[in-house]
Amino acid sequence: MPDFSIGERFKVTLFGQSHGPSVGCVIEGFPAGVAPDWDRISAFLARRAPGQNAWSTPRKEADQPEILSGLNENGQTCGAPITAVIRNGNTHSRDYEALKSTPRPGHADYTAYCKYGDAWDGRGGGQFSARLTAPLCFAGALAKLALEEKGIDIAAHIARVGTVEDASPDPVNPAFPFYALGAFPVIDAEKGEAMKAEIEAARQRGDSVDGAVACFVTGLPTGLGGPYFGGLEGKLAQALFGIPAVKGVQFGDVRHFGSENNDAFCVENGAVRTATNHCGGILGGISTGMPVSFTVSFKPTPSISLPQQSVNLRTMAETTLTVQGRHDPCVVPRAVPVVEAAAAIVLLDMILQGV
Question: Most buried residue among 45, 97, 113, 273 by CB atoms closer than 10 A?
């Protein structure tokens, strides 16, 4: 499968570069006859959009998609591929002039140079940039709306920033989406303020901080997925690891002993359920009918303003690099809808395939 495509029946292909004219996506397999709820789609994209608060990059972008194909004269999906572009307007390409021969530590600059040579567009990270998560969120917003029609809901929250951890919802009966709303989606508002302080302290030092996003899916039917390489965990993990800065994905929570970790089966309202949900709603790669839960770990933003050691690829001499430009001191707050979007794309694709 190409690097920028995911899905089979519901297929999403991303395109564009951070400082190119636009980023966008082509969506194939979305059901015909649907009139998209543009207000809800815009609200979802706004949760990811930059330049809205103190813990985000100052780069401001409208992030409003232009639909080039896939809608009929009545504004309904018509069965043709949906092509959406999101224009890049607030770029500062001059901030990246010095990086053409000096890779930023923690970024894809060096590996991209090794693969593409002088041809690659390094401005803002080019095709490796998290800017491409804007069209990913557009595709995910459509997928979320389609899943909601089937009674499936997806919501995520900031689980951790640095050393500060948010409260955890009940994995058996998570109450949401109340914590998935707002610019800084946490369950415990006091912990949220402590997280903001952690981010601001890192920013003041010229540094960045890591964190994690926890996501829950409810209403998923029993039997979705399969063993080994057809597993629900593997399908979700592939999409989640495609999000820039993701370094780990864990499903459910693992206890030290089998007697603690195993979820006892029970009957509730005539249906088989489990008393606990340590498995995260998946056994043998197949959904159990319980809420699916997973946590996604993000590394600290590699672009920091502190001096760092690098090398000049032209002269092969070591040098000191100070990164310019506008960057998030913590990627986690804006990554919450991206995690939801990636999960929605995978789940809709699997449901449409009937696997």
Answer: 45
